[in-house]
Amino acid sequence: MEVMVRECGINSFRFFMTYKGLLMVTDDLLLQGLRNASRLVPLVWFMQRMVMLLPRDNNREADMRTVSERTNSRVAWFSILSLGVCVAISVLQLWHLQGFFRKKKLI
């Protein structure tokens, strides 16, 4: 970074935090990069302070997880109920067909 600032005239750096699980760096490496950039370029320090002042919504992820788990549970119970209904209808159809064939004296 120092070489890029001194020799190439780079005056800003961008740190992107996307592609979770695919292209990630550790927190320590990210903080080290931010410290180096803030030491070299004042604009990074200002933006870093502004981000730290933004309110964080830590409960949102927990709420979304709860909603996801409840939805998953409901879908599982609906699947079991649907399977039970299919089995019950199959049994009733077999019972009806058996009575029909007995009535016609085919069984």
Overview of the molecule:
With 107 residues, the chain is mainly α. The chain has one domain. The chain has helices spanning 2-8, 27-40, 42-53, 58-103. The model has no long low-confidence stretch (mean pLDDT 78).
Largest sheet: none
How would you classify the helix and strand content by structural class?
A: mainly alpha
| Uncertain residue segments | none
Approximately how much helix is present in the residues? over 70%
Could you tell me the strand content as a percent range? under 5%
Q: SSE order, as H and E?
A: HHHH
Number of domains: 1
- Compute the average pLDDT: 78
Tally of alpha and pi helices: 4
State the end-to-end distance.
89 Å
Number of extended strands: 0
Radius of gyration: 32 Å
The shape is rod-shaped
In short:
The chain has 107 residues and is mostly helical. The protein is 74% helix and 0% strand.
Please tag this protein with its features:
107 residues; mainly alpha
SSE topology:
Layout lengths: L1 H7 L18 H14 L1 H12 L4 H46 L4
Helix pairs in contact: 2-3
Protein name: GOLD domain-containing protein
Main location: membrane
Membrane topology: Single-pass type I membrane protein
